[in-house]
């Protein structure tokens, strides 16, 4: 069902026939199913979610940038996490919105590859930024005496840059390996483009793509394990500390753990779904699982960090309600 044209080009032995010819499609079709039946309702929902992601992420990012008192490692990492959520939303929602309201749900081959790069770099950067956030919390709680001398602004920017660069390099290689593949099919069995959906349309052997994808997933997959080990060590230190220190550590670490666990579980569900035939799982369930990472993580991260952490919450309030800030100074 995924590669009908490619199957027709294969001989009885399963090898590609020598005299087979093919042409690279310039346009790929997306499968939206029954979503188009109420496209204006879904379009309004998509637009509203995107606005909420842009507004909440921009509020947190802008607040941290504008207030020097928030130029601390923890808040700079939070800004990087919200930037990535905003980036993921931009890669996903505008294209989805346009396709929902269009008569035909298609994407150009180049546009598909661009979305593949955007979506996979968003996935990867979410994990790497959460990993450096865990490292920051580990240093702060387990090595407090050396924390401020080691975690300078320069170090923080280097860690964020390394987290992004690492994923950009890996995803770029991944996409280059996909570009070299001639495609015999032109139907993406999803509402957006991801790498596996494009690779499975290939007319030729994809072993190199599969091996590199497995290697990339394995290396990046080690990071959540390292993060969990860091938090286990943090919890051990907290258990030996005072009640106030324990409460403060849990307040700052809990959002990180929730973000990581939710995101990793969502990606694992998506990977497992890809291994099943398309028609073996209800299409609605596939859609729900495949879009969760673009909806809940970008929405929850600004809310958890913006509303949970008092220092950010107060600064956001001062930006949108400057009158309260003036009154507060007057009372002092």
Structure overview:
The protein is mainly alpha-helical. It has one domain: Up-down Bundle (Rhopdopsin 7-helix transmembrane proteins). The chain has 12 helices and 3 strands; from the N terminus they run αβααβαααβαααααα. It has a 3-stranded mixed β-sheet. α4 (109-142) crosses α5 (144-150), α4 (109-142) runs antiparallel to α9 (243-274) and α6 runs antiparallel to α8. It is globular and about 65 Å long. It is found in: Cell membrane.
Give the overall shape, derived from the CA principal axes: globular
Q: Strand order across the biggest sheet?
A: 2-1-3
Order of helices and strands: HEHHEHHHEHHHHHH
DSSP summary: helix tally: 12
By DSSP, the count of extended strands is: 3
Average pLDDT, to the nearest integer?
A: 83
Strand content: under 5%
Helix percent band: over 70%
Class from secondary-structure proportions:
mainly alpha
The level 1 CATH classification is: Mainly Alpha
What are the low-pLDDT stretches, counting only 5+ consecutive residues below 50?
1-19, 326-332
CATH topology, by name, is Rhopdopsin 7-helix transmembrane proteins
Intertermini distance? 70 Å
Count of the domains: 1
Transmembrane segments: 40-66, 78-101, 107-135, 156-177, 211-232, 253-273, 285-307
GO cellular component, one term: plasma membrane
GO molecular function, one term: G protein-coupled receptor activity
Protein name: G-protein coupled receptors family 1 profile domain-containing protein
